[in-house]
Write a structure and sequence with these properties.
single chain; alpha/beta; Rossmann fold; OB fold (Dihydrolipoamide Acetyltransferase, E2P); 5-stranded parallel sheet; 7 helices; 30% strand
């Protein structure tokens, strides 16, 4: 399986070396940047499977600070690459929970083995998560109004009309009911195809809302209010949401 790998490195020769190794391993180069601003910009619309992160980089933030900022928004694994040997730097790096740590200078074999080990670990973690969170398909008439969500070692029967909203979360989605939250590995589009389009409507590229649960719409702040929950409305979807509420 090919993975998307991003390089954050301000030494051109070192970045070239890493890029060549990614190509040899058969993976896809997501982006090569040398500063924190360009790194954050590259991650806005899509995220890689792995980031190779130097500590000393250009820009307002160093690699450790940048990793903290990235992890506040996206759960992207980071493999640190640095020439710094001091304990203080190691402690700073450790606090970001990296998936690995390589000291410069390193050989092609060291880089290859480090990347291989990290990606193997990520693949195993992904398989475990896929087995833990999934939605069971039910076609019988008796279960048409329910979905069965696998949560660890049990199947929870969730009534579709009890769903308040669904939120996209990377490669997963969060399904919210009154008092429960379920994480499933399914795209927002796939979930929407299972829901009644007359009741469930997309209010934002990352949200689907059960319009029967809507208490009010905050037009000033572009928010749908469902009990104590607040879901954003994008400008593109606003008119359609208001039209739907007219006939519900």
């Amino acid at each position: 399986m090919a993975y998307k790998i991003m390089i954050v490195e301000d030494e051109e020769l070192m970045a070239d070396k890493m890029e060549m190794q990614i190509d040899k391993l058969g993976h896809e180069l997501f982006a090569v940047v040398d500063n924190s601003d360009d790194a954050l910009a590259a991650l806005q619309d899509e995220q890689p499977n792995l980031i190779l992160m130097d500590v000393n980089i250009e820009g307002e933030y160093d690699g450790v600070e940048l990793t903290d900022m990235i992890h506040q928004q996206w759960p992207v694994p980071v493999l640190f690459i640095t020439s710094l040997h001091d304990d203080a730097t190691f402690r700073r790096i450790s606090r970001t929970n990296p998936v690995g740590y390589i000291m410069k200078p390193f050989s092609d074999a060291q880089l290859k083995h480090s990347i291989d080990l990290v990606l193997k670990q990520l693949a195993m973690t992904q398989q475990a998560q896929d087995a833990q969170y999934e939605v069971q398909t039910n076609t019988s008439k008796e279960t048409e109004e329910y979905i069965f969500i696998k949560k660890r070692n049990q199947l929870d029967k969730v009534k579709i009309t009890d769903i308040f909203y669904v939120e996209a979360d990377g490669r997963y989605c969060q399904i919210y009911t009154q008092d429960q939250k379920y994480l499933i590995r399914m795209s927002l589009k796939a979930i929407s195809e299972r829901l009644d389009p007359k009741a469930f409507i997309q209010t934002h590229r990352s949200f689907i809302v059960n319009m029967h649960k809507v208490k009010s719409v905050d037009l000033e702040n572009d928010v749908v209010v469902l009990e104590s929950m607040h879901v954003p409305i994008s400008r593109r979807e606003k008119e359609r949401v208001l039209e739907t509420l007219d006939w519900i």
